[in-house]
Design brief:
It contains 4 helices and 11 strands. By secondary structure, it is mainly beta. One of its GO terms (molecular function) is ferric iron binding.
Length: about 220
């Protein structure tokens, strides 16, 4: 099984969020939904949207990283022009969000959100700061592994997939009920990026490669 079940009791939020009854299908065909939904294009993006380190006057604190990879369909073909969004905690493990009350410091030069469109080869590329682990009170002494949230859009908000990318060798993997809710070890491994020396830029940033394969990479649908 590639994708986690909607109800994973170890991940307490799913107890409240998982559907308890069969879905009621609306009397709307897909064409009706698509025609009333937004369509994304190059005009919506700023050139700096993909560089999370250059959104403020000063330099953010932490380990600078480059994360790149390809968005592919189930047959291995590149998905061109897909909107890819990321959001993450800062190097201290805190989100720039009003509901994050973690005592770690905020970074005035790091907001932690970015986006880009995939190119003709289905490739995306972000420059960021490696996020820190953070406590999340799901269970006693609960800490989330360092991760970056990814969102991939089709041509409308109804075509959206959300997942998380993790970093290799994190000792918190075994204790994280979100990752462990995916029953298959090979599927869990597909959420972990790999260090790549060719992507690494000398004296600037460490590079990581991570491909998103639609239908194969575990997603929240």
């Amino acid at each position: 099984m590639t994708h986690p079940p909607y109800l994973s009791p170890g991940y307490k939020s799913t107890v409240l969020r998982a559907p308890a009854q069969e879905p009621i299908m609306p009397e709307l065909g897909p064409d009706s939904v698509e025609l009333t939904s937004p369509v994304f294009g190059h005009a919506e993006l700023h050139p700096l949207d993909a560089d999370l380190t250059r959104r403020h006057p000063g330099e953010p604190l932490g380990e600078r990283i480059i994360v790149t990879g390809r968005v592919l369909d189930g047959a291995g073909r590149p998905v061109r022009g897909a909107l890819v969004e990321v959001w993450q905690a800062n190097a201290a493990g805190r989100y720039d969000h009003a509901l994050d009350r973690h005592q770690a410091p905020l970074d005035p030069n790091f907001t932690g959100a970015g986006r880009c469109l995939t190119d003709d080869d289905g490739r995306y590329r972000f420059t960021s700061i490696k996020p820190g682990a953070y406590p999340w009170r799901n269970h006693p002494n609960a800490w989330r592994p360092a991760h970056i949230h990814f969102s991939v859009f089709g041509t409308a908000f109804t075509q959206r997939l959300v997942t998380q990318m993790y970093f290799p060798g994190d000792p918190l993997f075994a204790y994280d009920p979100i990752m462990q809710s995916i029953p298959d070890q090979e599927a869990r491994d597909r959420l972990v990026c790999r260090f790549d020396l060719d992507t690494t830029e000398p004296e600037w940033a460490l590079g990581y490669q991570w491909d998103i394969v639609l239908g194969d990479t575990p997603m929240e649908t």
